[in-house]
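Standup notes
- HV: blocked on the assembly model, inputs below
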Amino acid sequence: MPQQSEVHVRLEGVTKTFPSAKRGAPAQEVLRGVDLEIRKGEIFGIIGQSGAGKSTLVRLINGLEKVTSGTLTVGQHTVSGLRESELREVRRDIGMIFQQFNLFRSRTVAGNVAYPLKVAGVPKAERDAKVARLLDFVGLLARAHDHPEQLSGGQQQRVGIARALATDPSLLLADEATSALDPETTQDVLNLLRQVNRELGITIVIITHEMDVIRSIADRVAVIDGGLVIESGSAYDIFNDPKTPEAQRFVGITLRDRPSAETLKRLRANHPGRLVTVRVQDRPGFQTTLSSAFLKRDVGAEIVFGGISELQERPVGSLTFVLNGNDTAIDAALSALREDDFAVEEV
Amino acid sequence: MSEYNWQVFQTAIGQTFFIVSISVVVGGLLGLALGLVLYATRPGNLMANRPVFILLNILVNIVRPIPFVIFLVAIQPLMLASIGTTIGTNAVTFALSLSAAFAVSRIVEQNLVTVNPGVIEAARASGARPISILLTVLVPEALGPLILGYTFIFVAIVDMSAQAGLFGGGGIGDFAITYGSQRYDWPVVYISVAVMIAIVQAGQFLGNYLARKALRR
């Protein structure tokens, strides 16, 4: 949960167009007017398919790519208006980690972490102490003198995180930071990121195409598609009630709580009756209210599909019922539930 | 070989070492600088500058195909202006350094291109200046292949140094021709060749060793 609501990163009508690779070909419009507010101290997830423009978006924040039009501010700095030399100062306050870790092969683990400190002109004694502290924080102090290729992927990303934190940034950008890792290592790295957020109070912007990542650590989410933010809100709201088809697709992949078209066909064949999907809600007596609505009217209701899981300590998911009984009774039960703010959908 | 020949031979070896070592160092450094500028100014790169890149690129492409013997003649006005002579060991060394620089520049540029763009991005994200990224990230990251490239250039320089005699530059090649083949004194030719081979072998061995160390293999 965000501790404060002070805005850390703000995007207003941000567009990014890359000039065409070939002469005569149309320019590539990657972002087409993005508005976003990322608050201080939160973990903000940006999800989208590959090619949606999310990697470009995160590179605009630290000025690795230049905004074509619109305004982008980070803290006090209007990044979109800065020259390269001014950007270098701002970047010391913004750490970044990458999908392929991007560690320097020519340097040891300690050398990698020391690099941003060298760039910032920190004296050697102070640098060494800082590197030791950071490596201890990510649990790799014992590997300080190894080279990156001697470490596993998860360990390399930990080094990447230590390097990104070297200059005590207030903002950390994570570009598909776990996409090259196996599920178990992904959780380790996400836990470390959460620790970075909670213990050091660093704002994290995490770009991903995996809804599981968002589900694990994001406080708030923006769904990006075709160069636009099509939906944004708290992670719970997006999971609980995705509005756009794109968001529904991402949520469905992760929760697997709604029957696919194929499953639905099978369900219909096996279960005579009407199929309805009810969204799980965080309210007292949810299931009791639900089942009594059917019982009262002599409607047989059997769960045939669904799932409930937890997000930010609240239940999310949906249940699919097959209903048997008098059609008018079923209609009455459904409208009674809808009146009581149940999200019921006949499928 | 006669006592006198030995003395001349020793001088020749000294001249070859002089020509080769100065050319490797001066040509190597000039070439490194030129290669870095070529790499950095290429459109889309760290210090993208189209006019500079195009100019240097064309310059390198013009100089590189010129055979060394012709190059020696062609730059005589430049030699005269900068070192005051067009013949002798110094003149040959001057020309060879310059010629090597252009060859080295391509080797440097080619090897920097192979460095993972991700590490450049990581360095930029750390707030590093382009010039510092070039020298403290790109060169160390490409060090292994760079050493092998320089080793290749070293061998080419030894090869080219054999033509020094044409302009009074001396050296082993000159000795082999003047005291060997022109006098039908074949042992002199073969001993000269053997020394050249030994120099090349030693250089290649050292280069391979250093490159392996840099690559940690």
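- HV (later): unblocked. The first helix of chain A runs from residue 54 to 61. The interface with chain B takes residues 62, 64, 88-89, 91-92, 94-96, 98, 100, 102-107, 115-116, 118-120, 147, 149, 163-164, 166-167, 173 of chain A (CB under 8 Å).
- Next: hand off to the docking folks.
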